[in-house]
Every structure is written in structure tokens, then in C-alpha cells.
Write a structure and sequence with these properties.
heterodimer, A: mainly beta, 4-stranded antiparallel beta sheet, B: mainly alpha, 20 helices, WH-like_DNA-bd_sf (chain B), PEX14 (chain B), Peroxisomal membrane protein PEX14 (chain B), membrane (chain B), protein transport (chain B)
Chain lengths: 318, 524
């Protein structure tokens, strides 16, 4: 299907866990440096060749860096805003009634938001104020704050099998594993020599996680022996912004990078790079794999385009 | 500081989990330690303290330069080196226990102030330190290793500098005094020879030539030494420059903070919606020198967190800076000058009805593919990696691997399978294998991939890497190990129960929590 043109620079894209044909896009004006932001809710067409349609859009005064769908409510999404607020939207409500909530606790930009896929009632926000906060949608204040990183926290990811465990990636070059029941982090993994921009858990092996870094490599770690990574995946030419494990195949990962490509990796295979898409003409900053449709990928970047395609096909095919 | 407020509902877990341990887990040989009572055990680093690391850390922390830095950066440095929390705490304890004999009173005072926060875990300095945080952290990181062996480095550098100086001196002496004399002597000898002198003049020129050659070689060697010493001096100078720059940056940061403070005071006088902008202008206007630097390819592995958006990840690329779009640079320049980009609008994005209740969800949550229990065993095409047991599974594994492009190029089939599983889970919690036979009407099917113009290219794109099925399994087993198998089995048996819970769920979250915690206890 054809690409969707967004007015601002794309930052993140997420498929809905309830509807196969729905996805949300977080965008920011002026590359997210200084400007407004917008959350788009898009609907994928039923027939090939038909365009992607926007079903809702919410304007924000500051850039939207990340977006997450609720796992409990089919119409609710949470946006991470650059002014430090976390906004909750409901697509069932008219635009005039949105946002539903604006939670202002972080003192700096909120860079990532992740919804708990097992417990379904809570979500995490990672911020440049070095902290991670745990929230539930029904509470006006955060449930907990996790402050240990020495620098910006770029991502937080829930473990798909252990509802209380999550990992965080930070600019202090470490990845920390936390348990919400413990007062502090339970593991500190010195993952890279440079900033770690993203981390994600393997959906089929709860002890494996992948980290993406400014050093152009993705490292896959087994937390049971975290001194040495299982594997180091090289292939990107610039910093890697996101890496996500496939919800359908245990060792498959997708990554997006400032080298404008989206790559697919299978870390169990000797030649790990199994796919490469260079459809973007600017930094690719957001990528997602659909949980409901196997092989469906979406990506967005600073070239103001959102692509949705099936793995193995050409994203630019109309 | 972490606020541990009102998370009682989450804290119920440990008690319930230990009470509900599944005895079936005990049978999974060799992995019991990994999946024992409390699920976080595998997520906690359980190594014993490494004495060598602790001693290195103690040496690091005892260094006077290190003690001048905030505690959080010392901790961060040690964490980056791979020390666990216990090792870091032990090192801090040891350094505070041993009497600081080599330190001045001011240093001990500072240390005492900083030590008390360090002794209490998880308490870190607040954002007051963060504006100046980034630069010292990078500085500490880069100079850290050097500081450990500080004395030796300094001694070595001094010695090399001294040698370089003497070498340079001798070289200059050679150049200025000795060689011209040699040359003139050689020339005189040669001239004398030309005037028709006999063998002894032959000898002398050769001697003279040899000595000249030797002198030249010595001079060349001395020149090399001088070059090397020059380079060392240059690097020293560079480092000094570095330090100077850092000091400058710190000063600029201070000025910036002051200006921000002033701006905030100004803002309090203003009462209009343009409030955020003067603040950000002040942020950026004072940072012109800092923000320009991220785009150079110099040694830059830190960010300037108080400089607003210029501290985005791409600003700190040590390996190589990705080329930014031209308009990005323009906007950065504009923002640094304090201008607001023209296309930015004032938007009020506050919630119109902040107390609006959250509506109930319309549909039930869908089961995740990795949560699907025994369906995985039978749905071979979709989950080839899960299958480590069972004859039918091996057969279908090879089949799906032989046709690697199968799952990807036939989305409709997979969709049906996936959806059948999901629908089956939701509708009939207890039924498992029969869900395949149901044909469900999908609400949305992604469009078929377009007709392929070049089948060879499409095949090349699709085929990840041709590997023999036989090869694949050993790789899997080697990497994932027996724990993966047992994990799957235990996860499968228990996740079906969890799926049952999900199926019975009516979408009310609070009800789900206690039962889900029980399931988590079983599955771990």
C-alpha cells in the first residue's frame, strides 16, 4: 500500500494490539527540536492499492516522541511528549474531548512509553530526567519512580512473560533490569561503550534481550550470563534507534537506524542480516512489527512518511 | 529518589508466588535455579563479589581527582565497567572506612558530604547536578581509566617530556654546530684531495664520508625522537586544550543556568501563553558554542543535557556522526540564535475535562502469539522456533524451513491461523486443537503483496539465508540450551491457564490482577 505522508517528522509508530488495521504514529515538527507535535491514528486499507486513511489526529504543543496503545482498552493510547507530560487519548471520544489526561511529572522530555502486555493495566515512561515512572491510566499520579540511571533514559521495555520485570536503556551506556517489587534495579548490564538507545525483550525467551546503540551495533544478551553478549550484530552504518523482537518468531528482530534503513535480523543464524529495506530518505526513527498480523511491518522517519508493508515485499510498491 | 508510594497491589506478589509454586517446575532438570519460586531470581545478578574488581574500584575511588567528582558519576563509571551493585557498595564502604591519610582537610570534608549519600543505596543527587552532569560524566569516563594509573602516567609523561627536551636540544646542537662543521671539514678535505693529494687524502674523505654518514644517521634518529616527542607534546597540549574547553563549557553552563534563573524570574512577571518560549530561547542563546560542537567529528562522547533538544542522541556520536538533513541544521542554528521557527503554533493541548472517567473497553484483550499455549505445537508454520519436541513438530519444522518464504509470502494463511488461535482462545478457553478447524471471518486482511515483476529478485529478498534444517537445530540448541525447552514446556502448560484467565476476563482490570499474579507464580 502507498506510503502515508505526515506533515511533521515521524518519531514512532505502533500497531494496535486490538485491530489489525490500525496504527498510531507519533510525530514532531522541526525534527523534534522545537515545535509542535501530532499523534496520528491511521487505518490500513482492506484492498491493495487503496491509500492509508487517517481516522484521528491530535495536536500537541510540543513534540511527541513515542506512542503506545493500551493493552486493556481498544481505543486508548498514551503519548510521550517532549514537554515532560504524558498524555492519554481516547479515539472513541470526539477530538474536542481529547486528551483524556495529561500527566505532568517528568521534569524533562519523555522519550518512550511502553504498555505492560501481561498485566495490561500499567505503563512505563522513560525520560531524559534520568528516571522511569510507572503509571496506571486511572491514577492521576505515578505509581513509582525509578531513578538510578546517571543519564537520559531512552527506552523502557516490559518483559513479555514476567509482568513485573522491565528493562531500561540509557545514555549512561548501561541497561538496567528492574522488578517493580524491588526498590532498585536488580541488574546492571554495561551493554555498550556508547549510549544505548533502545532495548527489547525476546518474546519467546524471557531471558534474552537486545540492545541498540549509538555504536552501530545491536547486541543480544542473555541476562543469566550478562558479562558477554550472545551475539553482536553489525551491519548498520550509523546509530541504531530502535530494535524490536518479532512477536511471531523467536529470534527475528527488526531495527531502524540513522542510515535510513530498516533491517531484519535473525541472531540464531550465522549470517544474521536477513532483510534490509532502504525505502526511507531520511533517518528512520520508528519501526514496529504487528502482533496480530505476522510479517507486517511499519516504519517512519524524518522524511515525513509512514510505510506499512509485508516482510518480503517492497515497501514502496503501491 | 525513587518514590515507593502506593504500590501495595503490586507488592502482593512474593507471598502469593511462593505459596503457589508449581511442583511441575521441579522436574525441569537443571533449570530449577532459573525458574524457582520468585520469578525475579533470574533477573537478579547472582554472582559473588569479585575481589579484584572491588580493589580496582577502591583504587579508583581513592584517587584525589575522583573524589572531587559527584558520587553519581563515580557510581556510573563503575557500573559501566561492569561492577555489580554489591561490588560498588563494598568499594565505597572500603574507601570510607580506610582513613584518608593522603588527603587534605578540604577533600575529606567534601568526601564526607558526598559519602553519606553514597552509603544509602538508590539515593542520588537531584537535578541540580544534572545541568553540569553531562560534561563531567563524559570527562570522567574518558579520563577515568587514566586516573587509575595517574601517577604512573604522569611520571611517564614527565620522563618522556624530559627526554624529548634533551633530545631536541641535542638535535638542535647537532644541526647548528656539529653538522656544518663536519660539512665544512668534509668539503675542505675533498678540496684538498682535488688538489692532487695522494692516498692519505683518499682515506680521509672516506673516513670523513663515513663519519658524515654516521652523523647524518644519528641526526636522523635524533630527528625521529624529536618528532615523536613533539607528537607527545602535541597530544599533551591537546589534552590541555580539552581541559580548557571543558572548563569553558562548565563556565558557559553556569552562565546558562544563571540566565535560565533570570528568565524564570522574568516569566513570573509575565502571564501569557508565550511563557515557554523565552525560557527555551534563553536555553539556546547561551549555548551557541556548545551546540556547534556536536557536528564535528572530534572526540565527543557526552551530551549537554541542559541545552534542550540539542542533546538528542545523534549529537553524541563518537564512532561517526550521521549526516543530518540540511533543514535540521538550519533549525538547530535558528534555535541556537534564540529564534522560534516560524511554523510553530501555540496549541493548548491540556485535557478539556480532566476528571472525565475512562470508558470501558469495547472488546476483550487479544492473546499474544507468545502466550498461546499448546497451539504453538500444532501451528507449525507460524512458530517454527518453538518446536523442540514431537515428531510431527520436527517434520513440520523442516517443512517450514525448507520453504522459508512460506510464512512471509502467504499472509492470508498465517492470518487465518493466528486469528483462529486468538479467536479460539477467547471464545473457548478449554479447547485447543480444534480451533484450527474453525473458519473465522476476519475483520481485516492485509492486502496481498503486489505482483512480482522480477521473481528472482523477490526470491533473493525473501530468502533470508538458505540453511539446511539439520544445521539449524544444533544452532538453536547450542544457543538456547535445555532451558529453552523446559521454558517452553513449563510456559506452555501454565500459559494455557493464563489464557483461560484471559478468556474469562471481562475487561475489568482490577479483577484480573490477583488471578494474573497467581498465574505468574505458576509459570515461573
Amino acid at each position: 500500500m502507498p506510503a502515508f505522508k505526515i506533515p511533521f517528522n515521524g518519531y514512532s509508530v505502533k500497531f494496535s494490539p486490538f485491530y489489525e488495521n490500525r496504527l498510531a504514529v507519533a510525530t514532531a515538527q522541526n525534527f523534534g527540536i522545537l515545535g509542535n507535535g501530532r499523534v496520528h491514528v491511521l487505518s490500513l486499507p482492506p484492498s491493495p492499492g487503496a491509500p492509508i486513511v487517517e481516522t484521528a489526529a491530535y495536536d500537541t504543543s510540543d513534540a511527541v516522541y513515542d506512542i503506545a496503545w493500551s493493552e486493556s482498552h481498544d481505543s486508548i493510547l498514551v503519548a510521550a511528549i517532549a514537554d515532560g507530560s504524558v498524555k492519554v487519548y481516547d479515539t472513541n471520544l470526539p477530538p474536542a474531548s481529547n486528551p483524556l489526561r495529561s500527566l505532568q511529572e517528568h521534569t524533562r522530555e519523555v522519550h518512550a512509553v511502553d504498555y505492560n502486555p501481561s498485566r495490561r493495566d500499567s505503563f512505563l515512561t522513560a525520560s531524559w530526567d534520568d528516571s522511569i515512572k510507572l503509571w496506571t491510566v486511572d491514577r492521576p499520579i505515578s505509581v513509582r519512580t525509578f531513578k538510578e540511571h546517571a543519564y537520559c533514559v531512552y527506552a523502557a521495555a516490559w518483559n513479555p512473560r514476567h509482568a513485573d520485570v522491565f528493562a531500561s536503556a540509557s545514555g549512561d551506556c548501561t541497561v538496567r533490569v528492574w522488578d517493580v517489587r524491588e526498590p532498585g534495579s536488580t541488574m546492571i548490564i554495561p551493554a555498550h561503550d556508547f549510549e544505548v538507545l533502545y532495548t527489547d525483550w525476546n518474546k519467546y525467551d524471557d531471558c534474552i534481550l537486545a540492545t541498540a546503540s549509538v555504536d552501530k551495533s545491536i547486541r543480544v544478551w542473555d541476562i543469566r550470563s550478562f558479562r558477554v553478549p550472545i551475539t553482536v550484530l553489525n551491519g548498520h552504518n550509523y546509530a541504531i534507534r530502535k530494535v524490536k523482537f518479532s512477536p511471531h518468531r523467536g529470534s527475528l528482530m527488526v531495527s531502524c537506524s540513522y542510515d535510513m534503513t530498516v533491517c531484519l535480523w535473525d541472531y540464531m543464524v550465522e549470517d544474521a542480516l536477513v532483510g534490509r529495506y532502504d525505502h526511507h530518505t531520511e533517518f528512520t526513527v520508528g519501526v514496529d512489527m504487528s502482533v496480530l498480523v505476522e510479517g507486517l511491518l511499519a516504519s517512519t522517519g524524518w522524511d515525513e512518511l509512514v510505510y506499512v508493508w509485508q516482510h518480503g515485499t517492497d515497501p514502496r510498491a503501491p | 529518589m525513587p518514590t515507593q508510594s502506593a504500590d501495595d497491589d503490586v507488592k502482593q506478589d512474593p507471598v502469593e508466588e511462593t505459596a503457589q509454586r508449581d511442583p511441575g517446575d521441579a522436574q525441569t532438570a537443571g533449570t530449577e535455579n532459573n525458574y524457582s519460586n520468585s520469578s525475579p531470581s533470574v533477573f537478579v545478578s547472582s554472582e559473588p563479589m569479585r575481589e579484584e574488581q572491588v580493589q580496582n574500584a577502591v583504587k579508583f575511588l581513592s584517587h584525589p581527582k575522583v573524589q572531587g567528582s559527584p558520587v553519581i558519576y563515580r557510581r556510573s563509571f563503575l557500573e559501566k565497567k561492569g561492577l555489580t551493585k554489591e561490588e560498588i557498595d563494598e568499594a565505597f564502604r572500603r574507601v570510607s572506612d580506610s582513613p584518608p591519610s593522603a588527603q587534605t582537610s578540604t577533600v575529606t570534608q567534601e568526601e564526607g558530604q558526598l559519602r553519606s549519600p553514597a552509603n544509602i543505596p538508590q539515593q542520588y543527587p537531584t537535578q541540580a547536578l544534572q545541568p553540569a552532569a553531562a560534561i563531567p560524566s563524559g570527562f570522567m569516563a574518558s579520563v577515568g581509566p587514566a586516573n587509575r594509573y595517574g601517577f604512573r602516567w604522569y611520571h611517564a609523561l614527565l620522563a618522556i617530556g624530559f627526554l624529548a627536551g634533551t633530545g631536541a636540544g641535542t638535535l638542535i646542537f647537532f644541526k647548528k654546530a656539529v653538522i656544518p662543521r663536519l660539512r665544512s671539514w668534509v668539503r675542505a678535505v675533498v678540496l684538498a684531495e682535488e688538489n692532487g693529494v695522494s692516498r692519505e687524502t683518499h682515506l680521509r674523505p672516506s673516513l670523513a664520508e663515513e663519519t658524515a654518514a654516521a652523523a647524518k644517521a644519528a641526526a636522523a634518529a635524533a630527528a625521529d625522537i624529536a618528532k615523536a616527542s613533539e607528537e607527545l607534546l602535541n597530544s599533551k597540549l591537546q589534552e590541555k586544550k580539552f581541559l580548557g574547553e571543558i572548563m569553558n563549557l562548565l563556565n558557559v553552563q553556569l552562565c546558562e543556568i544563571k540566565s535560565v534563573g533570570v528568565a524564570v524570574k522574568n516569566l513570573q512577571g509575565q502571564a501569557n501563553s508565550y511563557a515557554p518560549n523565552p525560557l527555551s530561547n534563553c536555553d539556546f542563546s547561551a549555548s551557541s558554542t556548545i551546540s556547534k560542537q556536536p557536528y564535528s567529528n572530534g572526540k565527543r562522547d557526552w551530551e549537554y543535557s541542559s541545552v534542550g533538544r540539542s542533546s538528542i542522541p545523534q549529537a553524541s556520536l563518537e564512532p561517526s556522526a550521521a549526516p543530518h538533513p540540511k533543514s535540521y541544521m538550519e533549525i538547530m542554528a535558528m534555535v541556537q540564535r534564540g529564534e522560534r521557527p516560524p511554523n510553530v503554533k501555540d496549541i493548548d493541548d491540556s485535557p478539556p475535562y480532566p476528571n472525565q472517567p475512562i470508558s470501558n473497553p469495547r472488546i476483550n484483550p487479544r492473546v499474544k502469539p507468545w502466550e498461546v499455549g499448546q497451539n504453538q505445537r500444532s501451528s507449525n508454520q507460524v512458530f517454527p522456533y518453538q518446536l523442540n519436541s514431537g515428531v510431527q513438530n520436527n517434520g513440520s519444522v523442516s517443512k517450514s524451513q525448507g520453504n522459508k518464504s512460506g510464512p512471509w509470502s502467504q499472509p492470508a494463511n498465517n492470518l487465518r491461523i493466528t486469528d483462529l488461535e486468538n479467536e479460539g482462545e477467547i471464545k473457548s478457553g478449554s479447547q485447543r486443537t480444534s480451533s484450527h478447524e474453525q473458519s473465522i471471518k476476519r475483520s481485516w486482511v492485509p492486502p496481498q503483496p503486489p505482483h512480482v515483476a522480477m521473481p528472482e529478485a523477490a526470491e533473493a529478498i525473501r530468502r533470508p539465508k538458505p540453511t539446511i534444517p539439520g544445521e539449524r537445530l544444533p544452532h538453536e540448541q547450542k544457543l538456547s540450551g535445555p532451558s529453552d525447552v523446559t521454558n517452553n514446556e513449563s510456559a506452555m502448560t501454565t500459559k494455557t491457564d493464563e489464557a483461560n484467565e484471559t478468556a474469562n476476563d471481562n475487561g475489568v482490570n482490577t479483577e484480573l490482577n490477583p488471578s494474573r499474579m497467581q498465574e505468574e507464580g505458576k509459570s515461573s
